[in-house]
Amino acid sequence: MQVNFTRYFFTLLTLGLFISCDRDPKTPKVGEWRVELDLGKGKKLPFLMEYTADKTLYFFNAEEKIEITDVTFFGDSIHINHPVFEGVFKGIFAEDSIYGDFIKPSMDRTVPFKMKQGRAERFNVKVAPKQTVKGNWEAVFSPNTAEDRYIAKGIFDQIGHKVTGTFRTTTGDYRYLEGAVEGDSLKLSTFDGAHAFLFEAVVNDSLMEGIFYSGSHWKEPFTAKRNEMFELPKADSLTFLKEGYDRLKFSFPDSKGKMVSLDDDQFKNKVVIVQIMGTWCPNCLDETKYFTQFYKANKSDSLEMVALAFEYAKTEARALQAIEKLRTAVEVPYPILLAQYGGGSKQKANDKLPMLNHVLSYPTTIFIDKTGKVRRIHTGFNGPATGEEYTKFVKEFEAFVDQLLKE
User: How confident is the model at residue 184 (pLDDT cuts 50, 70, 90)?
Assistant: First the structure.
């Protein structure tokens, strides 16, 4: 019998392709993973994550759990995108490892990373702790440089060698920090999709001295002393209207290009909360989540909120894309106006809002009463990582808005 080898080969090839396409493609192993960002000169910033069967990732920082659903595969390549921030992990994966770069295009920043599958500690501790850092610390960053010097309050808890907490500054907090004490050495880290922070310090009873690394592009020294009574300056005293002003004025476009100002009918005779922010800013994201929740629960004909976004995106189109990404992810119900793109310069923000003495922080919140007068300006935001300070902020914010609404 004569065999048609061409037809036979084609049938086998077709069957092989069918079987191959019908099988699930190779993906990383489900379970716990440890990630290291390479900051250069031997410095590694670790954090933990989990990969699930539905191709979802979770990043962990102390009590924080960040869900990442935008995970795509291209052959043996993987892209991991944050739901709000522009930073993306681009790597080559195997079942138990991923290697590549974490990239922030608008800031031209690239940090190498590696991810290894398996249960692991955030920091590998080989020596029992000789010190405890639990409590409050009065800290100074860049203490020997007048231009860069600023104060902070360290708030830490410690169980065994494990440490959680944060540093609060006058402009916000340094996120959910997690780490360990090994001997007299303290190490803390966090990664939230936008900022990669690493703190290393030597602790001696009531003193600590160390270095703060922000990604691979910035580092500065810090010192701290234990001080349970230390408090930061009040956030409502740092930014204010210049003499001769009692009102805020601006005119910026919304996502459709329509110019919006406080003179518009939608804001007249209403209490207005103005949020100065950026989609790249984790503290702003925390604040936006809270404001969204508050606005939906307290929406009325007498209350409006509006955000002014100062964006790092290099083009207007990319800035608007970033705003829409935030709006969709958080379901923001109030308008977000594009105040600036091409950088987050606070000096440029000052130029756009010349009635303010300065824009010291992203975020900054401005409270306007029904007559259009500025009644309070709150610098920074104490997010959920600050615990009691966040609870205190929420209580004071809601009480003051309620007061303005009743006037």
Answer: very high
Q: Is pLDDT of 263 > 90?
A: yes
3-state secondary structure of 94: coil
Distance CA 382, CA 280 (A): 17
Compute the average pLDDT of residues 20-48.
Answer: 85
Q: Which helix (H) or strand (E) holds 104?
A: strand 97-104
- Asked if residues 96 and 117 have their Cβ atoms less than 8 Å apart, the reply is yes
Cβ–Cβ under 8 Å, residues 149 and 143: yes
Instruction: Report whether pLDDT(364) > 50.
Output: yes
The answer to whether the beta carbons of residues 333 and 307 sit under 8 Å apart is: no
Q: How many CB atoms lie within 10 A of CB 71?
A: 18
Nearest-5° angle of CA 148, CA 151, CA 156? Answer: 130
**82 Cα distance to chain centroid:** 10
Domains of the chain, first to last: 31-117 (2.40.128.120), 135-226 (2.40.128.120), 235-406 (3.40.30.10)
Closest of 323, 60, 62 to residue 193, by C-alpha: 60
Q: pLDDT digits over 303-328, tens only?
A: 999 999 999 999 999 999 999 999 99
Please give the C-alpha separations between residue 283 and each of 262, 278, 386, in angstroms, as whole numbers. 25, 9, 11
The helix (H) or strand (E) run that includes residue 167 is strand 162-169
Residue 274 is encoded by which pair of tokens? Answer: 């103005």
Give residues with Cβ within 8 angstroms of 105, minimum separation 6: 86
Nearest C-alpha neighbor of 303 from the set 397, 200, 165, 188: 397
Half-sphere exposure of 312 (CA within 13 A, CB side): 15
